[in-house]
Specification:
Blueprint: H1 5-16, H2 24-27, E1 35-39, H3 50-58, E2 62-66, H4 73-85, E3 91-96, H5 100-106, E4 112-118, H6 129-133, E5 145-148, E6 151-154, H7 156-163, H8 169-177, E7 182-183, E8 201-206, H9 214-224, E9 227-231, H10 237-240, H11 242-252
Parallel strand pairs: 1-2, 1-3, 3-4, 4-8, 8-9
Antiparallel strand pairs: 5-6, 6-7
Helix pairs in contact: 3-11, 4-5
Length: about 260
Amino acid sequence: MMMNRRAFSAALVAGATLLSTRGMATTAAPVKARNVVLAHGLFADGSCWTEVIVRLQAAGLNATAVQNPLTTLPEATAAVTRVLDRQDGPTVLVGHSFSGMLVTEAGVHPSVSALVYVAARAPDAGEDYTALAKTFPTPPASAGIVFDGDEGRLSEKAFLRDFAGDLPEAKAKVLYAVQQPFQKALLTGKTTQAAWRSKPSWYAVSTEDRTIDPDLERFMAKRMDAKTIEVKASHLSLISHPDEITRLILEAAGQNTD
């Protein structure tokens, strides 16, 4: 029998009384989810999840990619929340890059059973992510961001070398052609909640990342006590290594990946 949202929310609350808010990914079996919601970050759109979506659908999961407006943090969070509202039953919320902010903020939604971060930001509530990032080496891609007024994008050189460095050049150029510009206001937002403090979390570190420093990724994953894998990949591990990323999501969804 399908669990409705109210019953599922009650189950999560009951479960929370038995578990610490830290280390949940390693101390409790994941809730079996039937839905996956995927959010994209800067310099991309929802199509960046295509390779992962194909694999999730083959595993019998309902997958939906959010079209992040990349305008302000509240508007981007609202876009994720609207998609979560449409889900029927437990849902894994996945974010790449900047959209880790959205996972952290919107992940408190009662339908969300687990969080997955893919080379993603994972701030604490109210934390200044920019200040945190400055305590680690500046990634090369940062120098490639160009602005037209308040609208930002990544230069072609930086996109091919520092964002999608392990993809075939022809494929990377297609992704560059469809990159969605972002608004400066998006970068000033701070999360007001940290869903990873109450939801089990998984993290995929990209060891060859030139967009977010890999050691910063490791720091955030360790701070969350997330179940962590390391993928020898550029920032776009979801495209260059979709099998590894899909397996991590399936694990978070309570599916046997052996």
